[in-house]
Each structure stands twice: as structure tokens, then as C-alpha cells.
Amino acid sequence: MRALIFLAALLCGLPSFAANRCDLSEPTRYADVGEVRLAYQSIGSERDPTLLLVMGLGGQLIHWPDEVVERLCQQGFRVVRFDNRDVGLSTWRRPAPSINLPYEVLRYRLGLSLGAPYHLRDMAGDALGLMDRLGVDNFHVLGASMGGMIAQHLADLAPQRVLSLTLVMTSSSAQGLPAPSDALVALLARREAVSREAALQQQADLLAALGSPTVHDDRALLLHQAEQAYDRAFNPEGVQRQLLAILAESSRVELLNRLKVPTLVVHGTADPLLPVMHGVHVAAHIKGAELKLIPGLAHRFQDAFKEPLLAAVLPHLAAHRGDLGLAHL
């Protein structure tokens, strides 16, 4: 009887316990990984399975919505989010090489080789090095957009260490897949703002263009989001270099074909940057991968789609966490 009472008390106390352990106010810390210093935040107990979040082009760790990070942590994961090199509070490449981005984009469209200061596989090495510095042997990976591309390399670099792979709104970079409009590419590459106000307006324009046509964006909210990112760190040249790393990448089909890690691919049917066939193509080339399409989802973590995204992702993570869900008790 005492055991039953204790178990009931324990179960009833789990929600508050999870809330206490998932402290989003954890400070930003730094780890030296090879030639770069990465800014990261670790949320949750170190005894729990680690879930590494890898952000997309120009995104900072703050672009993972806090409520999503908290929900992931409450499922019994130690959630690690970080700034990729060249954005946020991580190392910016110096001195910054001169980049003629329109010229490089033209070379990409003509199928010519591009010269990039670094590659996505280097960025995957950064992420793997972060796990080494944190003393994490095995971990789960969730990557979004460019972060999903980096995650593909990460699973290939360390197939024995990646327990599960979740790829959201990403691509295989194979030739022949639908391309975004010229107007959207121009917004993505536009970094010539002469003032803080101009930069905020540009970023708000880009966020609106990446949003779902089924959702009305509040311009004031978009500007607030742009302001938070700008005031934390603003490095337009770094975003251009990340974009070059994406454009310089050849098809990852052969890489995907050799992956054996449990994989979930999540994509939106209204993605304007990487149309839905990009996600379908990724899933088709990873053995055993599960594909979940979310109607109306575009290329942003908009509030209207946070619950559908979590509903897609959480069962996959729970199925492959590997500790029967008991590590956080």
C-alpha cells in the first residue's frame, strides 16, 4: 500500500517536477570547438537523453520557440540549442572575405562550382564537437531547414552516436527539385540595410514571405521578433557565408541512402522556400524513414503550427529515447 501511495504521489508531482527542471532561464554558455567558439544553452537534467537542436540559415538559438523547447524538455530530454558559426554569439569568421552573392547564385543556377569559406559538413563537425565538449556520447538530433541539412551530415559523421534524427522543412539538395521564387531568394539574400530600422523592416518582410498563406501575420509581432534577433547579434555577412555553404553543397542522396538511424521527416504543404517535394525526396532516400506532412505549414515556426509540429515530433522521440522514459525520474 505504501508503495502505491508513493507511486501516486510521484506521478501527481511529475508535471511540477518537469516544470522545475526545464528552466528556460539557464544562461548562455560557451564551448571552444576547433577553430570556433559556440554559444549554447542546455535545458534539463544531464541524466536525461540529450536532444540537440540545429537551427537553419541565419537563425540563432533564440529562434527555437521557448514553449517548444520547454515541451521537449518536459518529455524527459536534456535540450541543447546553440548558435551555428557565423551567427548569434558564436564565432564570426574574421576577416570577412569579400562575397559577390548575386554572382555566386548565378554560378549555382548554371551548375558551376562555388567557392565557400566553409561547408555544411564543417558545421556538422561543430555540432559534434559541442557534444564532445559536453561529454555526451549518444544523442538525438532535430534540425530545421539548413539545420536539417547539417543534421544529415551529423548522422553520417557519427552513425553510432546519433540515436534518432528528426528533419523539419529541409532538403536533400538534389538537382531537379522545385526551387523557390526569385523574389523570395532576393529577400533571403538582401543584407544591404543602412540602418537598424531598415534591417528590421527587411527581416519582417522575409518572415512574412516565409509564413503560411493561411495565417495572418501581425506586422508588429514580426518587427518585435526581428528586433530581438538584431539586438542580440547582427551579422549579415555571416548569413551570406552560411548561404554559400548551402549553395556549394552537392546532392546528399548518396549520404541519405547510407543512413540507418531512425528518422522522421516533417514538412509543410505550403513551404515557399523548400516546396513539399523536398521533404518527400529526403524521406524516400532514408531507409525506414517516416514522413509526416503538415497541411498549411510553411517555413517558419508560427504559433498556429506549434501543436501540429509537436504532435508529429514527440511520438518519434519517445519511441527512440532508449531509456523507457525513466531517466528523468
TrEMBL record:
Residues 1-18 form the signal peptide. GO terms for molecular function: triacylglycerol lipase activity. Residues 49-299 form the AB hydrolase-1 domain. The keyword Signal applies. The lineage of its organism: Bacteria, Pseudomonadati, Pseudomonadota, Gammaproteobacteria, Pseudomonadales. It comes from the Bacteria. Keywords: Hydrolase, Signal. This is Alpha/beta hydrolase. GO terms for biological process: glycerolipid catabolic process. InterPro entries: AB_hydrolase (IPR050471), AB_hydrolase_1 (IPR000073), AB_hydrolase_fold (IPR029058).
